[in-house]
Write a structure and sequence with these properties.
2 domains; five-stranded antiparallel β-sheet; single chain; 8 strands
C-alpha cells in the first residue's frame, strides 16, 4: 500500500470498515509517546508518514479481544493530544470531543464481554418495557452517586434488550415512525455503540 495515498481522509474512512477502529495521532512531546507508539506498533495495521514538520501515525486494531484491549490503551494515552482523531465505520471522531469518551467506554465494554464465557450474559438484559426501561431506577435518585447505577430486576422480563450499556440512557418512543430496533440502532450510532462487534439491534425481541 502506498503510504502517501493511504493517508487521505477518504482512504482512512474506507479502511476503517476493516478494523475495530483506526487511530491517527501526531508525534507529541508527551512523556507517554513511547508507550503509545509501543501499543500502536503492535496493532494489526501500523503506518507512519512525515507531513512537512509533522510525523503522523496510523494504527488499526482487529475487532477481537486483543485488538480491543490495545485500542482502549492507546485511546487512553492519545485522546487529549492535539491532532488526534479516530475513524470508525467510516466516521471521523475528534479525540478531544465527547464522542471519543464514548468510544473508549464502548470498547472497554466490548473487551469485558470477551472475558466472559457467554457474551449474552454480559450484553443482553431482560426488561419489561422498551419505552420506560430506566423508570424503575428513579427510586434510587436519593442514593449516593457511587451506587446510582444499581439496576433493579424486571418483574417479568418480557423483552430481550441487546445492549446493557445503552440501558442507562435509552428509551424508545412509542409513537415514533421508526421501529424499536431502528431506534436502538440510531441511538447506538450517536454514542458509538455500533463500534462494538457485538452490537446488533436485531437481537431486540419479545420473549415468548
Amino acid at each position: 500500500m502506498n503510504p502517501a495515498s493511504f493517508f487521505t481522509p477518504a482512504n482512512l474512512s474506507a479502511a476503517s470498515f476493516d478494523y475495530l477502529l483506526l487511530a491517527i495521532f501526531l508525534r507529541s512531546r508527551s512523556e507517554a509517546l513511547p508507550w503509545a507508539l509501543e501499543i500502536a506498533e503492535r496493532a494489526t495495521l501500523f503506518s507512519q508518514r512525515d507531513l512537512e514538520s509533522l510525523r503522523v501515525y496510523v494504527a488499526g486494531f482487529s475487532p477481537d479481544a486483543v485488538g480491543g484491549a490495545q485500542a482502549m490503551q492507546l485511546i487512553h494515552y492519545i485522546r487529549g493530544w492535539k491532532g488526534t482523531h479516530f475513524y470508525v465505520k467510516g466516521r471521523m471522531i475528534i479525540g478531544e470531543m465527547v464522542q471519543a469518551y464514548h468510544l473508549e467506554s464502548v470498547i472497554r465494554c466490548f473487551v469485558e464481554s470477551c472475558a466472559v464465557r457467554d457474551h449474552r450474559a454480559h450484553c443482553f438484559r431482560l426488561i419489561d418495557s422498551p419505552y420506560f426501561p430506566v423508570a424503575p431506577r428513579r427510586m434510587y435518585e436519593h442514593i449516593h452517586p457511587e451506587f446510582k447505577h444499581i439496576t433493579p430486576l424486571p418483574e417479568r422480563g418480557i423483552y430481550q434488550f441487546p445492549c446493557a450499556y445503552m440501558l442507562d440512557w435509552f428509551e424508545a418512543q412509542r409513537d415514533h415512525p421508526a421501529s424499536i430496533r431502528d431506534q436502538i440502532q440510531a441511538a447506538g450510532i450517536g454514542k458509538c455503540c455500533d463500534v462494538c462487534p457485538r452490537f446488533n439491534p436485531d437481537n431486540f425481541e419479545r420473549r415468548t
